[in-house]
Amino acid sequence: MSAGLDNLKHIVVLMMENRSFDHMLGSLKAVNSRIDGVSDTWNNLDTTGGEVKPQPLADFQGQLNPDPDHHFPAVDLQIFGGDKSPGRSPNMQGFVKSYFNQRRDVAHSQKIMYYFKKDDLPVLTTLALEFAVFNRWFASIPGPTICNRAFAHYGTSFGRVDMNPFDIIEPIKSIYARLINATPKHTAKVYYYDTTSSTMEVVNLLQNQPELFGTYKQFLSACDQGGLPEYSFVEPNYNDHETDAGEEVANDQHPDHDVQAGEFLIAEVYMRIKRNPALWRSTALLVVYDEHGGIFDHVPPPACTADQFTASANSTGTGMEFKFDRLGVRVPAVLISPWIPKNTVVDRVFDHASIPATITKFFLNGDAKQSPREIHADVFIEPNTGPVDPQRNLLSLDTMRSDCPEFDV
Amino acid sequence: MTIIHVPKPSKKAMNPHRPVSGLLLAQIQHLQHAERRLPLAYRSKIYTHAIQTEGEAARYIREVTEAIHLAHSDAARQRTKSASHTNERKSGKRAKPKKRRES
User: What's the whole-model pTM score?
Assistant: First the structure.
């Protein structure tokens, strides 16, 4: 029995853009040594052979321009430092080299090692310290946004390692189709910010099932009125644009968008859930980033179960095929619920395939066709159908916390 | 209970004239893929190869997203309409003729 799991009715995932764990949460090692953040022992060499250490000098905007390369070949360089030999091991030594390739400027290339001071990011760092922070949540693929986000929706990218449109290969279905077509029916929505920002899952979801989508305003209203579906996936605003109501600043935190705008979004989602007592008691919110965006992290991504697809040497751009048997670079991930003890640090390995894996296990008792990657992905919320392992259950408190922080948004 | 202040982004953060990013170009590519399957009447007149700024990208993204929603809702309306005609035919009922307005 777990009071937290017994009360859980809604899972919300907010997926931000392109920042590594060390860049956003690395400063927290100084506050809690169990958090695997930045230390003085990590470094990269620049193209002159100079040692570059992580430094707390990250800026909200204007620093990572051009956008650091995070396509498959660049991430391969970042992880393996340029080693292409058989049996190579990830050493995380190629971040500065990779960024140098874009502007040929040694001083500028060092900025890829910068991270935020704790107080720069009062929202994300507070949530990480107050609830559960994941030391080992990795992007699903050492590559860019679209294929990584596909893992969050389908548990696979169907063999893609790039940004091109892809087709769903049956019998695997999106987590939304699994939920709404189940017997009994479940409820699920993707909330994009507005139609001017739209979604990053156009070709399969928006094109074929536009009824799955709502706007961020509708998400906020559903929070207020108790109308949230069982599963909600929230997308940030991906572009600066004007509306009748005024200016909408991109809040996805993708370089070179303003990081503080994303902090505001995270705080608003959290507070909107928290301000409805019935919803707060019955909701778990996961804040996670789709991939590292080319920015330094010190933890070598581990090997994992191969997927049923293989990307050819031509499509990876590295001259080597990829069997989806290694995770991407580590990203920030925080699970929030009043049933989670303060200062929880999770050391188990997760990736975005853990999202459909968790939703499928929790709401559908695991009843769905899943990719090999999803089948082997760990879950961040335990299924509540039998005895619950207290060592794995993150929503482990017997009574709800009343000391959770609030933000003035 | 701790109340934490969240700074608002700087006014300078907004820049719709920023060069369009690789991410937005990919999103445009996906929307174009979807747009090609829309009936002609729903398609945008924006020339996507000429998109250079985030603001221009945003305009195209909105037009096609709204067009996809509209095309689906028009199709659903049409489906309901033809289903009700079929049901009327099956049950032998006919829609009441509209009253002619007396002039």
Answer: 0.96
